[in-house]
Design a protein that fits this description.
By secondary structure, this protein is mainly α. It contains 14 helices and no strands. It has one domain: Na+/H+ antiporter like fold (Up-down Bundle). The model has no long low-confidence stretch (mean pLDDT about 90).
Length: about 325
């Protein structure tokens, strides 16, 4: 267990540095948003580019791991949606956000630094988890929220036309166009494609770009963990039945589902199984909160679960790493 804590405690120590820095008001107003923007647009793309570009293409063709990760994510999403609608009596949009929250781990800010600490052999697997999570869980959630939003808008237009308040048809872009437009604006998607091109074609990376991306990417891990802590520090921790259930689902149910699928999947080695379980055990990413606000869904419980889950992750993730034999 000591060797596990030697990996996790320094990383979560950075989280707590950010937490106390925010709570003790050592950070100026708006610093958390500035850190997150630096990460999203600069440091994390550089880190992700290097993680992909400097690996052979064979490192990313672990189809059994990819299939297991996607299947477990879809299973968790579906079960969480059903639980939220039937047992928690949540409306479809709130249920969609709940399902996303408990299925969308923080594989970017927290998972990639952990993979680097555990060993560079784990980095391609974490990259696969990041990309499949982005293109499956996030895209699926946005599509479902768009469908529900447009259905509600169409009903409003129909009622307005019935009262003679509106004539004509509402102008709406296709959902596919909306999703593709959002993805095309994501620096993570752009650098992932560039990294794959470099990897597939075995292109040499110019020394200037190599050194620049190395310096910039090296800032991603400490700044990401510090920013997580600072984000937690500016939020009050108030758990209710709904937010507590999301914490339990994310830290316990999701990794159990992932473990079941990964262990049953043929042609997958023990290291990939362990890494997949650990990735699923990571706390929820803040993207859920951001997307929920964009679609006008109440995100108070989501925010509470993200804060609580991130604080408990030092124990849960350490336990998973120890139980799976990652360290």
């Amino acid at each position: 267990m000591l060797t596990v804590l030697e990996v996790t405690l320094p990383l979560f120590g950075l989280v707590f540095c950010g937490f106390f820095g925010q709570r003790l008001r050592l950070l100026p107003e708006g610093s958390v948003d500035a850190l997150n923007r630096f990460l999203f647009y600069f440091a994390l793309p550089a880190m992700l580019f290097r993680a992909i570009a400097f690996q052979p293409l064979s490192a990313f063709t672990q189809w059994s791991f990819l299939a297991a990760w996607v299947i477990s994510a879809l299973a968790c999403f579906t079960l969480a949606y059903a639980f939220a609608t039937r047992y928690l009596q949540k409306a479809p949009m709130a249920a969609t956000l709940t399902a996303m929250n408990v299925t969308h781990p923080n594989v970017g800010y927290m998972g990639l630094p952990l993979a680097l600490e555990l060993g560079r052999d784990f980095v391609p697997l974490m990259v696969i988890a990041i990309l499949s999570d982005l293109f499956v869980v996030v895209v699926l959630s946005i599509v479902l929220l768009e469908i529900r939003t447009r259905s509600a808008d169409a009903q409003i237009f129909s009622e307005a036309q019935g009262f003679g308040l509106y004539r004509g048809r509402p102008a709406m872009r296709s959902i596919t166009f909306t999703v593709l437009q959002g993805l095309s604006r994501s620096p993570l998607v752009i650098v992932s494609l560039l990294g794959l091109i470099v990897s597939v074609l075995a292109l040499p990376v110019p020394p200037l770009l190599d050194h620049f991306s190395r310096l910039l990417g090296a800032a991603a891990a400490p700044v990401a963990l510090f920013a997580i802590g600072a984000s937690i520090g500016r939020s009050a921790l108030r758990l209710n039945r709904f937010s507590a259930s999301m914490v339990g689902w994310k830290l316990l149910v999701h990794p159990l589902i992932a473990a079941g699928v990964l262990l049953c999947m043929p042609n997958i080695d023990s290291k990939a199984v362990a890494l997949g379980i650990m990735a699923a055990a990571l706390p929820s990413a803040s993207n859920t909160f951001i997307i929920g606000n964009r679609y006008g869904v109440d995100t108070s419980a989501v925010a509470q679960s993200i804060v609580a889950g991130s604080m408990l992750a030092v124990l849960s993730v350490s336990a998973v790493i120890g139980l799976t034999g990652l360290r």
